[in-house]
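Training component of the fellowship. As part of building independent skills, the fellow (R.M.) carried out the full modelling exercise for a liganded target. The chosen ligand was 1-deoxynojirimycin. The inputs are recorded below so that the supervisory panel can assess the work.
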Amino acid sequence: YQLHIKSFFDSNNDGIGDFAGLISKLDYIAELGVNTLWLLPFYPSPRRDDGYDIAEYKAVHPDYGSMADARRFIAEAHKRGLRVITELVINHTSDQHPWFQRARHAKRGSKAREFYVWSDDDQKYDGTRIIFLDTEKSNWTWDPVAGQYFWHRFYSHQPDLNFDNPQVLKAVIGVMRFWLDLGVDGLRLDAIPYLIERDGTNNENLAETHDVLKAIRAEIDANYPDRMLLAEANQWPEDTRPYFGEGDGDECHMAFHFPLMPRMYMALAMEDRFPITDILRQTPEIPANCQWAIFLRNHDELTLEMVTDRERDYLWNYYAEDRRARINLGIRRRLAPLLQRDRRRIELLTSLLLSMPGTPTLYYGDELGMGDNIYLGDRDGVRTPMQWSPDRNGGFSRADPQRLVLPPIMDPLYGYQTVNVEAQSHDPHSLLNWTRRMLAVRKQQKAFGRGSLRTLTPSNRRILAYIREYTDADGNTEVILCVANVSRAAQAAELELSQYADKVPVEMLGGSAFPPIGQLPFLLTLPPYAFYWFLLASRDRM
Ligand code: NOJ
Ligand code: CA
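Fellow's submitted model of the complex:
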């Protein structure tokens, strides 16, 4: 469960969410049924990139509380069986970071200067793409103090650290140890493909970048064997695979599956399973002790970097007709507005998220079907205050509405008076309660998290069907059949399941038994946008 402290709950009514507020809402998160919290950056920062522009690594932004509050939060989360993932943002810092201030004043070529990447001209590394296309013209920005250009893959106030300087890696490992010593369970490695620059390359995924990751992992293995590294590498599957490392995995334990995400939306738009089955086919095997992280939405734009130009145009036209919804190479909308509040489609995509191979990541508020505000700058429109109740400011804060860190959603369809935790908690049919049930069902079966995946090939391409299978150490096997109708019309499909002849498909949400599987193709009909999860049970166990 991914959240921003700033937008979750404000305990002291200054308009900004804080650690104390988050602690008071931990029961809500635990009751949802998730097992891990991923916190967006909460360090001192000018917040020109919502905290990814870090000005001090080993501290808490005073708006959010103190180090003692952070420590208390970790303890309270652990008490509830929740693990904590924080951000290790090491590709860049804020230009306000003392390392940068020192570097720009230091002598050329000195250790201090070389904490960042400098050049006398802005043509070096010109084979490198610009990521924040809507804001930046170049990956170089002139620094009048240093009298040189500095390198940045993101905003021009975010200079990239220079990992060719061994002091930088040492300092970064110091930061990592600081948070691990405090009890953090995992670290999301932000923007990890861009650590090293080399002439004549596109400066992504370089072997030297992987060497840095191997050094970071070695530190974890030596001193923190029960902690986890999660790679944010927005890359194609074959370029993401190396972030798990070699052999048993000597880099990250987990990595986000960026290409799968837009293809779930694509399948829905095209009413065809092909985008999903195609990317699953291209997804390489990963070491047994590694795992994908999968997601539908997060705090950023729905990135369309990992699709072809034609696919991007198609998705933009379908999901972001309003140009204000587009930013960089993506769409700044939340899940519910993307799907026009269609419960069937929200449930369908969520069922895919919860049943495909990998650890599902939920973005705060999406469990309510929260809306967004595309009139806010950058990606702030998907980072608005959590909607707790119909009270002032959605129950997020009792501050003057003008003082809030971001305005809450107030439109008639998605506003906090309509969409909020309190109302949905009392409604047995709410999206919130549906999500809780789904998470509870998912947790009963190990096959979802650990099982293998095999896609079936019914001739009806509007039907996506796959088998998740897991055998535990005692030799007990779980088989789950997932079937989804990605079309707006009712569909029938014939599934070749003869290898499971005699098994009885038991629908997992309602518990009802379907006719046993035989030698002939198994016939299923599905209403529009419907999905089924079946546990294939032995007849004698029925
Ligand atoms: C990746 C983060 O997810 C995004 O929010 C941020 O803008 C970039 N890194 C640059 O810091
Ligand atoms: Ca506050």
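The panel noted the following from the submitted structure. The chain has a mean pLDDT of 97. The radius of gyration is 24 Å.
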